């Protein structure tokens, strides 16, 4: 879909379909595509499963038993962020998971140079936005500062700079 009109047309047609047709189609896509499979995993996971799944995704990147391509790493990291919901997750847990997420930056940037822009956006914009939401909800500002200080002390790729706003909270 390349235009808003095409998107809206498809959306309206899909909304008119029976729920079971959509479920079957989504499961078929999950069988055919690793990306869709990761997406379905995110959709069906409970709160507890989301944390475990997040750990699994991060370990998949950092403990690669099979060499992942840059594109695969990007997709896994995108789906990892999809698992983090500031509304339904304890802020300290979200911040801890994001700290883990940021430690994958070397794996991401060293996997390819063709996706530098996408990785930059993922870490600097998307992850930072989530971090800000969790940090604002966290009552323990010292905890937030400690995480930020650790992340800023190892910012080899310059994708954590926006977190500086949280380095001197009171």
From the structure above, extract its key features.
170 residues; mainly alpha; 0% strand
Task: Give an account of the 3D structure.
This protein is mainly alpha-helical and 170 residues long. The protein folds into 2 domains: 1-32; 46-166. The protein is 71% helix and 0% strand. It has 9 helices and no strands. The chain has helices spanning 4-16, 19-32, 34-44, 47-62, 70-82, 91-102, 105-111, 116-137, 141-153. Helix 2 packs across helix 3, helix 3 packs parallel to helix 5 and helix 5 (70-82) runs parallel beside helix 8. The mean pLDDT is 92.
| Helical residue percent band | over 70%
Rg over alpha carbons: 18 Å
Count of helical stretches: 9
Structural class: mainly alpha
Strands, total number: 0
H/E element sequence: HHHHHHHHH
Number of domains: 2
The separation of the N and C termini measures 47 Å
> So what's the overall shape?
globular
Strand residue content: under 5%
Poorly predicted runs of 5 or more residues: none
Summarize the main sheet.
none
> Averaging pLDDT over every residue, what do you get?
92
């Amino acid at each position: 879909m390349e235009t808003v009109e095409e998107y809206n047309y498809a959306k309206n047609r899909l909304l008119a379909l029976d729920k079971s047709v959509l479920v079957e189609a989504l499961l078929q896509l999950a069988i055919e595509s690793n990306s869709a499979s990761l997406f379905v995993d995110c959709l069906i996971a409970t709160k507890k499963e989301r944390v475990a799944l997040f750990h699994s995704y991060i370990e998949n990147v950092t403990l690669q038993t099979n060499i992942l391509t840059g594109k695969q790493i990007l997709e896994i990291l995108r789906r990892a962020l999809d698992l983090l919901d500031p509304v339904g997750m304890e802020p300290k847990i979200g911040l801890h998971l994001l700290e883990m997420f940021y430690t994958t930056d070397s794996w991401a940037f060293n996997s390819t140079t063709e996706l530098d822009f996408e990785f930059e956006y993922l870490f600097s914009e998307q992850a930072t936005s989530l971090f800000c939401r969790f940090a604002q909800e966290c009552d323990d500002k010292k905890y937030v500062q400690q995480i930020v200080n650790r992340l800023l002390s190892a910012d080899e790729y310059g994708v954590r700079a926006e977190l500086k706003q949280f380095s001197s909270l009171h």
